[in-house]
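Morning, I've got a small favour to ask if you have a moment. Here's the protein in full, and shout if anything looks odd to you:
***
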Amino acid sequence: MATYKEIKGTNIEVLASDPSNPVEGQVWYNSTSNVLKGQGATTSGAWSSTPSLNTARDQVAGAGTTTSGLVFGENFGGETEFYNGSSWSEQNDLNTSRRALAGAGALGTAALAFAGNLAAPSPNAASNATEKWNGTNWTNVNNLNLARSFAAGTGTNTAALCIGGAAGSGGNPPVTADTESWNGTNWTEVADLNTARNDGGAGGITTSALAFGGFKDSGGSPEYFAGTESWNGSTWTAVNNLNTARRSLGGAGSDNTACVAFGGDPGSGAVGITEVWNGTNWTEQGDMANARGLMGSTKGSSTAAMAMGGADTTHVETFSGAGSPTTVTFTDS
């Protein structure tokens, strides 16, 4: 059995009083009251059912929030739907039909679609196409430098990241560590991931983001991956892994200290597993009601995320975030 130091990288602290701002999972010994204490959550995060999409779809991308959302693309389609907080409505299609694309956007009325696998003229070819959504129409803008599919996307339609992906046709190798940053006009190559991956999740903004899970290339064959990397605007740093290695997972988050990972496939079939990142560790929360692979079809924050479609379904679920923090006193009973 692993020790606390092996898990956390430090011994249990001995303190005269409880810390003023403990993080979830922190453990300390209060030498004044002579008790062992820890920081936990009162409840697990919960998913709730949300009105369904009009069209069942898979391998899509998403943008926005739980009250202003957008979902686009699907199995070589360009279909787009907007969520106004109560229902989904069909919108104008993407100019370039594709699947396995990535998305970014703070609202369902202002989004960015990029990368993917093309429907035509070369089916399954990796794409570098980028389109910007203004709430009514998609407009072609400057392309990515590297064509790819199954990349992770995060940010807004004026400041986004495209992370990793597969540069081969149909999502095949080579798997890339390439990261590009969008400034509203152009894509610029920035520092690579430490570990190349595709079909993973991401959350955050261009100056503070997190990439997690997916497939990594292990000697020419894909390996289900739990690795997590934190982005500070200039470099990627490997941090603590997900509890469950998986691909095709959804991701959302405000920055590299607050993200949520959910759904996906750990190699044994689709799961609804949900994990919340607190800046140091991943903690398992309540599962989604509908286990499925989600890839880029998710957006929002770690306390208000939305899972849209996936596995050719119309299912939509909304995440309410992890439970409130509480200090627990450990006993020997």
Remarks:
- The two ends are 20 Å apart (CA to CA).
- The first strand starts at residue 13 and ends at 15.
- The CA atoms of residues 127 and 211 lie 21 Å apart.
- The mean pLDDT is 90.
